[in-house]
Design a protein that fits this description.
Rossmann fold, about 300 residues, alpha/beta, Tumour Suppressor Smad4
């Protein structure tokens, strides 16, 4: 008798779930997610801290893990929360092949793909593998003072250099690709990605940039200057921000509002496109215009749409 051919077994599927468990609605959504994935034979990974928010029976359906190394074996990281929780997850998936999918339990939630009422259908799409992957650019940033590297970090949405003392303006000089652009005083300046154009940069008066556009944004914050317009520059440009000497309190560097570093007087901050990206799972086939209208509740009454013309 001939030997039976080797049976090729597919590796077990797993997803890492992160949730803002301080919200009751997040625990309700989390319970639904755990049950649906368990029924589909997909392993749910969670930290022990977040799994403790589940009932004893539901906690038995998940595999508890440390975040270190958990992403590498996961097909996807699913986030139940707002943009802050999604940005936390971005720290885990950046530069990996693992995709990130956000379910919005917060307010606007531009980074999220689904809303809380869509949770059951969202899990079904993940189980079926019915989603596409969209890559988003990120930023690298460094702070140098007197030839010494003080800090280096990265951001998905934006990097901001802001005043450290609320009572004083921050005096800055901004350059692009090594050429000086403008010196001004104000609350600071933002360098943002297209993804971040609907976040802090938007609040500071920057333009909304479609995520398919490859570009960097430079947006002054409450600048006292005649020329203080937001700028859209080439994606491979380097933005330099120098904190002028004499600014005793110096400035503060923020990355996505999560990581902060000192930018003392005389320091130079450089922001550039990173080689590493994040991969977002997308369920909708709609265009960004529809997302913008839905998230901001924009009025579109009276719109008739394109009309075909008849001609010979």
């Amino acid at each position: 008798m001939s030997a039976d051919p080797a049976v090729v077994t597919q590796p077990a599927r797993s997803v890492l779930v992160l949730a803002h468990t301080g919200r009751p609605e997040a625990i309700t959504a989390l319970t639904k997610v755990v049950h649906r994935f368990h029924e589909a034979g997909i392993q749910t990974l969670m930290t022990s801290e977040e799994a403790s928010a589940l009932s004893v029976a539901d906690r038995g359906l998940v595999q508890e893990c440390d975040l270190d190394g958990a992403v590498a074996g996961a097909e996807m990281v699913i986030v139940l929360g707002g943009d802050g929780t999604i940005l936390r997850a971005a720290e885990l998936v950046r530069g990996t092949e693992t995709t990130l999918l956000g379910v919005n339990l917060g307010h606007v939630g531009f980074l999220a793909e689904a809303e809380r009422e869509e949770i059951v259908g969202t899990v079904a799409r993940v189980v079926a593998g019915d989603y596409r992957v969209e890559e988003r650019m990120t930023l690298d940033v460094s702070v140098v003072h007197d030839g010494e590297l003080l800090a280096s970090s990265w951001a998905v949405n934006e990097v901001s250099v802001e005043k450290a003392n609320r009572e004083r303006m921050l005096e800055l000089v901004v350059d692009v690709d090594g050429r000086p652009l403008s010196t001004f005083g104000g609350d600071g300046v933002i360098a943002a990605t297209p993804t971040g154009s609907t976040a802090y940069a938007f609040s500071a008066g920057g333009p909304v940039v479609w995520p398919e556009v490859e570009a960097l944004l430079v947006v002054p914050i409450s600048a006292h200057a005649l020329f203080a317009r937001p700028l859209v520059i080439a994606p491979n440009s380097v933005v330099g921000v120098e904190v002028l000497p004499g600014m005793g309190d110096g400035g503060v560097l923020w990355c996505d509002g999560r990581r902060t570093f000192a930018a003392p007087a005389g320091a130079r901050v450089e922001v550039r496109r990173s080689r590493q990206t994040i991969k977002l799972a997308r369920l909708s086939s709609g265009v960004f215009t529809d997302r913008l209208v839905a998230k901001f509740g924009l009025p579109v009454s009276g719109w008739r749409g394109p009309r075909s013309t008849q001609g010979g």
